[in-house]
Structure formats: structure tokens, C-alpha cells
Amino acid sequence: MTDPTAAQQFIEAIPHSKALGMTLEEIGDGRAVISMPYDTRFIGDPATGVIAGGAVSALMDTCCGAAVMTFPGARGTATLDLRIDYMRAAKPGQRIIARAECFHATRTVAFVKATAHDEDEGLPVATASGAFTMESVTRAPGAKTEGAQ
Asked: I want to staple 71 with a disulfide (CB 3.0 to 4.6 A). Which of 30, 48, 108, 120 is the partner?
């Protein structure tokens, strides 16, 4: 893991991240991995024990934001648009792991893809794609940007 300081502070500043027990697993160069443990407080269907989709979406949104925060030259971010496709229910009792990558950025907008899996690494629980604001400092040499002047 690279120095997680800014991204860790970003995650800790969001009250729901702490409430959901999110843990930063990996971070750096426009990528992030964040996990969330299974918790009975977040069950959406008591009959099956499946975690609510809202908890999964919060995890994915936070992971995407963290990925943007580590994109070369990024200083701040906020979600503009996030599309989440739920593929299957997460298995009750298993933690959920989100992986996000900021794959392209303009001067002010970052584009991110993400997946969330439970401990079964087969079919994802959900996938996401989104656009995030990107407050930036001077771009790092070789940063993948478009339209910079």
C-alpha cells in the first residue's frame, strides 16, 4: 500500500464510512480497494440476511472517490454521477470488497470504474461507473488528462 494519508482522511471524514466499518485495504495511482465487514445492522432482507443495496452503493461510492483522490494531481472530489448495476446478492456473513480505478480525467472531471465482490471472487455483487469532480493541483508529468491548457 502506498501512503494512504489523504485518502484515509477522506474516508474518515465521511460519517457513513466509519458507521459502515469501511477499511482502506490498498490505495495509490488512481486505484483504491476498500472493504466492509458483514454486519447484521445493515441487513436489507431479514428473511435471507442479505446486506441492503444502499450499504453496497455507499461502499462503492466511497471507493471511487478514494481512487480519484489518488489520481496524479488530484486534491479533492465529489460525486457527479454514479451508476451501479447490482449483479447478485452478497452472501450473508461475508465481507464485501470494492475495487475502483480512475481511468481517465479531464481538468475538472474524473471517470471511474468499480466492482464489488463478497469473499466469493466469481460474479461481482455489483459494478459501477461514474463521473466525479476533480479539484486538482498542478498535474504530475505523464498524468492521463485531456484538454489541459
From this structure: 30
